[in-house]
Amino acid sequence: MYVNIKDNPEDYKSLKKAVDLLESPSLTARLSGFIGSPIEIAVKALPESISKKVNGAVTAALHSSVDAALWSLENAPKKPASIRLHKLYAATSGAIGGAFGFTTLFLELPVSTTIMMRSVADVARSEGFDLSDFATKQACIEVFAMGGPSQADDATETGYYATRSFTTQAMQHLSKELAEIAAKHGAKATSYFAPGQAGKWLAVLIEKVATRFGYTITSKFAAQAVPVIGALTGASINALFTDFYQDTARGYFIVKRLESTYGYEQIEREYATIKNTSRIS
Q1: Between the CA of residue 199 and those of 26, 116, 129, what are the distances in Å?
Q2: What is the mean pLDDT of residues 69-83?
């Protein structure tokens, strides 16, 4: 039976909110506003050795943070998210990193990434998602692809559904056994993965997401390398990052929740309509 989201004003309002959150200015754009100049200039000023180390550090941080973040939360779907508490944790982490200087940023990265991952999982839980479900873990990782494109991305590869497509393409390179499971079980394929298969899936996904998250982390390093950086600025940048990914997670999981009720195609279509109407107005 076909159910139209427009027949449920509350859900349609939620979709509009999600579009507003997911199509807001990028994280790199917000960082540029924060430091008062294009972030690209600060990125180019980074030592080449730093840029080379970022992707490996980001990949390791994503791997370690996702299990720690989900394990530390009670699995209680619909429980309200602790938005301010996670911002406070992130700000404290950034303040410590800022106080001890640029050399501590790689040490601070796993901590701040875990805090942000935990805040994303907290939002997922508040939208009714089961934290023990492998698909929820996958979606929490995907949120970190939303911060901004990598330098290798095409300029058109932006926006919520484009980023969803970006991460889905990564799965096409999985082994034959995972492809067969996906073909047999469709959207619920991840529920049928054995631990080894699940780990293989996550490794591919994290590697793909790291190319985008790594770009935003490089931008973060560049912003914190500005000479006037201190504890206060480090705290502010971490709070900015956490705020962005909390908003992104909220929009992301609203859309996923609505897709489960109304179907992927209808929500994607209505999402595009709302987005285009907002641009015109």
Answers
A1: 30, 21, 21
A2: 91
pLDDT confidence bin for 187, thresholds 50/70/90 = very low
Give the integer Cα–Cα distance in Å for 209 and 203.
Answer: 10
Rounded to a whole number of angstroms, the distance between the first and last alpha carbons of the chain is 34
* Cβ–Cβ under 8 Å, residues 221 and 46: yes
Encoded tokens for 187 = 């959207």
Q: What is the CA radius of gyration of the chain?
A: 19
**In whole numbers, what is the pLDDT of the chain averaged over residues?**
80
Residue that the structure tokens 């980023």 belong to: 163
Return the structure tokens found at 178.
């995972």
Question: What's the number of CA atoms in the CB half-sphere (13 Å) around residue 242?
Answer: 31
Task: Write the pLDDT tens digit of every residue in 219-257.
Answer: 887 777 665 555 557 778 888 889 999 999 999 999 999
- Cα→Cα distances 29→38, 119, 132, 147, 249, Å: 8, 22, 34, 10, 18
Cα angle 142, 144, 148; round to 5:
115
pLDDT at 15: 97
Give the Å distances, CA to CA, from 129 to 65, 77, 81, 117: 19, 6, 12, 15
Structure confidence at residue 123 as a pLDDT band (50, 70, 90): very high
